[in-house]
């Protein structure tokens, strides 16, 4: 990249690839206009992860929009999530408590992941791997609680085509949205485990580039981000 | 070079954001716990949701420090989704009527 021959009329100082961007729209225009790679200074792996996450945003929003359409157009009452997801702890029914705990678990996993990325760039391998494994463990805990929630609802007779509490579409929306999110968390835990293994093995120490930890982190934070929206629209609304 | 090598911020920043996310999650849980209703409930839910999403994207995902070209390339396309949401919402009463007429529920 750095040693490519200069085209006629191109001066080496006009737009070197590692120049800081001009402020605001001017910088954006010159980044897109230079007829070379657009995302300067952004490693391709990170740019690709962001573009994947963008496509995932569209998928999840389509699910949530479908859920919104159903909920706005049903002719029977929607089951009250506050009651459906309540748990009886010590003889007292606490609304939505499992979902709240799941939220805190996932946010904590995002916190440990952010710190893992930080330690990775400081080349503290042991701390990085430990924090990543902690993140994956929290993710597995989350999926475990989700499995518990699914089991409870299935035992109560919730099915994708109907349920005893109200609108039939509740089950379809619930299983589709939380199932797809749970799948993302499961794959993410696996992904983090693999990257943590590579950190411990010293792969990134040899290549001198810990970017992959940050890229894995992007995926993990996105999973947390999606949960923020599911929590707001599906459980709280 | 420090920037090209990757994002480097003090750990305390992440801990602060973590704490803030905990507080915001607790607040949104309390919206349900105290049985707020109607527009108060919806506006509180959306406010806390957007604040949490903003903190995660800008700080945890480092969007705040990315080059503007990247930021706009990623954050602008989802605005299309608002159009989809708007379309589906405006169609909702038509679908509702169709359900009533065709299924007689």
TrEMBL record, chain A:
Gene3D superfamilies: Cytochrome c oxidase, subunit III, four-helix bundle. Residues 1-26 are annotated as: Disordered. InterPro entries: Cyt_c/ubiquinol_Oxase_su3, Cyt_c_oxidase-like_su3, Cyt_c_oxidase_su3-like_sf, Cyt_c_oxidase_su3_a-hlx. PROSITE patterns: COX3. GO terms for molecular function: cytochrome-c oxidase activity. Signal peptide: none annotated. CDD domains: Heme_Cu_Oxidase_III_1 (cd02864). Keywords: Cell membrane, Membrane, Transmembrane, Transmembrane helix. The chain crosses the membrane at residues 50-74, 94-117, 129-148, 168-197, 218-236. Its main location: membrane. It is found in: Cell membrane. It is a multi-pass membrane protein. GO terms for cellular component: plasma membrane. Residues 49-237 form the Heme-copper oxidase subunit III family profile domain. One of its GO terms (biological process) is aerobic electron transport chain. Heterooctamer of two A chains, two B chains, two C chains and two D chains. Belongs to the cytochrome c oxidase subunit 3 family. Cytochrome bo(3) ubiquinol terminal oxidase is the component of the aerobic respiratory chain of E.coli that predominates when cells are grown at high aeration. Has proton pump activity across the membrane in addition to electron transfer, pumping 2 protons/electron. This is Cytochrome bo(3) ubiquinol oxidase subunit 3. It comes from Pseudomonas lini.
TrEMBL record, chain B:
Coiled coil: none annotated. Keywords: Cell membrane, Membrane, Transmembrane, Transmembrane helix. It is found in: Cell membrane. It comes from the Bacteria. The chain crosses the membrane at residues 12-30, 42-61, 68-89. Its main location: membrane. It is a multi-pass membrane protein. The keyword Manganese does not apply. This is Cytochrome C oxidase subunit IV. It comes from Pseudomonas syringae.
